[in-house]
Amino acid sequence: MNANLLQTPIAYLKGVGPNRADTLRSELGIATYQDLLNLFPNRYIDKTRYYKINTLQRNSADVQIVGKIVNIKTIEQKRGKRLVATFLDETGQMELVWFRGQKWIRENLKLNVAYVIFGRCNWYNGAFSMPHPEMELLTEHQQGVKVHMQPVYPSTEKLGNKGITNRVISKLIQQLFTETKGRFSESLAPVHMQELKLLSKHEAMFNIHFPKNSELLAKAQFRLKFEELFYIQMQLISKKLLRKQKIKGYNFDQVGTMFNDFFAHHLPFELTGAQKRVIKEIRADLGSNAQMNRLLQGDVGSGKTIVAVMIMLLAIDNGFQACLMAPTEILANQHYQGIKELLKNTSVQCALLTGSVKQSARKPIHENLENGTLQILIGTHALLEDKVRFENLGLAIVDEQHRFGVAQRSKLWHKNEIPPHILVMTATPIPRTLAMSLYGDLDISVIDELPPGRKPIKTVHRFDSNRLKVFRFIRDEIKKGRQIYVVYPLIQESEALDYKDLMDGYESIARDFPLPDFQISIVHGKMKPADKDYEMERFVKGETQIMVATTVIEVGVNVPNASVMIIESAERFGLSQLHQLRGRVGRGADQSFCILMTSHKLSTEAKTRLETMVATNDGFEIAEVDLRLRGPGDIMGTQQSGILNMKIADLVKDNDILQTARHYAIKLLKEDPRLEKPENLIVRHAYSQLVKHKNIWNYIS
Ligand code: ADP
Ligand code: MG
User: Fold this and answer.
1) DSSP labels for 367-396?
2) Rg (Cα) of the chain, in Å, rounded?
């Protein structure tokens, strides 16, 4: 079929017109025939099933009943009028209720005639009732086309108000099939069709909108999901191949004295197997003449820093400078201190640049950076300022990538003619499916092993009413010489209240843990960086025993002697945040604890989060639960949600199809990178159509 026909503006479809076209566009993003065709049902209703009133369950959706109306009346109340009909079948009676369109309904409803009603059944005032049922005379119902599985399309309140009901959408799609004769050109290659026994495009489209039976529906869904995921993967993988071909990278082919000397004499511990493997992967990348763009995933405490250091040494060995960028001053500072300590017996020149570094101190940094004597620069966003010019930046490491936007990453990139190699480190484990979809164009290394000798953190959930016991426990731990974190939530929308909670909490702790026996630090976002650092410093040095804080300590802070993490209002934190926070303890030789404090009022989802935290320390397992609870869009934030906004596939449920799609995409691009073979023409054509009409989502660059 002429693909251009599918690009026809939706207003031209019979039954649409300019008004409906506007609504369809603003509410569902439908601008063309193609968009409507790709509006896939959320679910299907089994219309072969009829219920009896005496078997109804409270609050059940999609109920279809045969019966008749015996009586109808208008009830007036302060809140307004409603029309109520008594509906009977041979097993019982219920009410039908209308709040809108009462006049028309009253005039048109027939009493004592068999109807088929359909809708949502509520339990209200001791009786079943159905608001605004769909109704059809039984005689008409019996004559009508039998639809076994009725599609339910995405809808919005505004669509409903404008009369664009599910039935209307269904009719429009029928019209679309009529006008286009339902002949949609094939968009997958013969090899896919044969090996995966796929339905043709045409059959799949028909059955997704008008399923003939559940088996064909399942096949249609499989095919369309595969297609969607396949083309996303095609895009990601070809982007990666292109980058490798086109974007030349510095070749770090030397393993020189810096790296070797450090490895032989200055490693403070034996590397774990995972650390060794990851360093190897990165080294191979750096010597391949292409620019590295790699994501390094490793749970909190898995030892990413040492990997970063060794890779930076490799850069220096090859005559380049390296930088490490962290999202907060505290973190940048800690990295600086830690890395300086690691490199203290080497000749490496290293500096720290953050917003609070004084102008006078910046000058020599800028100079030494430009003349090349400074080899490693560690800092915050301050690294991105225009004044910061490297002589020869070969490697940029970004810690905790989820806090940096795309623009910032590419800014680093443009600091030099040939882009530096980029290593993005994250402690937020990303479920495999998400990683494949979001970062399918990046290379990924995973540190999936913790350094030896760590004792798993014991996590418990306690209610606020048990606070005294918790305080007693803290006192015992402090007596043993341990340090304690107490973390309060800080959510932007309720900032003022949250600060009050924090200060109240601080006061009550100060009362229970009085001077001079106990010293308490407090750190929160409203403090000046200098004050924050001072308080943090006192805690790091062990001068204070308790650190009361908001989530500013979430990432990176390393105090091995801290063994207890108390999280207040834990029900308000997301899973990944809880996991990050917990990762602040368990870094020393002692048994560590995480105590999740909550009130008794907990949502089901909050309970699941708490139970998950208590049950496991495994960041990847937690990430999977998080993905199931929140869905991919929420997890990755709106910035990246475009790509996750898939039309039919679901990253949580369709993991297997995703793997298959990726496998086929890799295979195809390996065998025929430019899609020149005759058997791949279909794919080439479909792909270019998708790109041309922007039906492939905008990916992170
Ligand atoms: P993260 O991956 O969270 O950034 P770090 O790099 O801060 O982890 O490492 C956490 C702690 O583990 C640090 O105190 C570090 O010195 C220590 N560490 C890292 N690797 C090892 C190892 N192979 N053996 C022992 N301790 C290690
Ligand atoms: Mg770290």
Assistant:
1) HHHHHT---EEEESGGGGSTT---SSEEEE
2) 31
What does each C-alpha distance from 417 to 242, 287, 392, 536 come to in angstroms? 18, 19, 10, 39
Q: What's the pLDDT at 145?
A: 62
Distance CA(10)–CA(176), nearest Å, equals 10
pLDDT per position as a tens digit, 287-343: 888 888 888 998 878 899 999 999 999 999 999 999 999 988 888 988 999 999 999
Question: Which residue CA neighbors atom 18 of ligand 1 most closely?
Answer: 303
CA distance 606 to 609: 5
CA distance 464 to 472: 14
Beta-carbon contacts of residue 411 (< 8 Å; ≥ 6 apart): 384
- Tell me if 586 CB under 6 Å of ligand 1: no
Is 558's pLDDT higher than 60? yes
Alpha carbons 83 and 96: distance in angstroms, whole number: 8
**Residue identifier of the C-alpha nearest atom 16 of ligand 1:** 303
CA dihedral 22, 28, 29, 30 (to 10 degrees): -70
For atom 27 of ligand 1, the residue with the nearest CA is 451
**Closest by Cα among 48, 41, 67 to 147:** 48
298 CB within 6 A, ligand 1: yes
| Cα–Cα distance measured from residue 699 to residue 476, given in angstroms and rounded to the nearest whole number | 52
Both tokens of 288, joined, read: 């391949």
The pTM assigned to this predicted structure is 0.69
Q: How far is CA 189 from CA 193, 194, 223, 335, 647, in A?
A: 7, 9, 12, 50, 21
